[in-house]
Design goal:
The protein is low in regular secondary structure and 88 residues long. It has one helix spanning 66-71, and strands spanning 11-13, 41-43, 60-61, 74-75.
C-alpha cells in the first residue's frame, strides 16, 4: 500500500450513520455493509476538552456488550482493561 501525505489528520466518520458499523483506523468500513453516508468526520487526535466543560457526576460507560454492561459495568472516565491489561 502506498502512503500519500494529504496534509490532513486521519479522520473517521461520526454521527448517526456510523452507529452499529465497524471501521478500521483509516475510517473505512470493514463490515461489508457498503459505504457510510456521513458527511461529518473528526480527527482521531484532538485536543482535550477544557476543564470547565467536563462533567463531574458519576455515570456508567455503556460498552454495548450485554454481558459486560450487566455483570461488570464500568465507570465513565476511568481507565479500563476490557480486552487485555495496561488499563487502556
Amino acid at each position: 500500500m502506498e502512503v500519500v501525505d494529504n496534509g490532513a489528520p486521519l479522520t473517521v466518520p461520526v454521527g448517526t450513520p456510523t452507529l452499529g458499523r465497524i471501521f478500521n483506523v483509516l475510517g473505512e468500513p470493514v463490515d461489508n455493509q457498503g459505504p457510510v453516508d456521513s458527511s461529518d468526520g473528526l480527527a482521531i487526535h484532538r485536543t482535550a476538552p477544557a476543564f470547565v466543560d467536563l462533567d463531574t457526576k458519576l455515570s456508567i460507560f455503556e460498552t454495548g456488550i450485554k454481558v459486560v454492561d450487566l455483570l461488570a459495568p464500568y465507570r465513565r472516565g476511568g481507565k479500563i482493561g476490557l480486552f487485555g491489561g495496561a488499563g487502556v
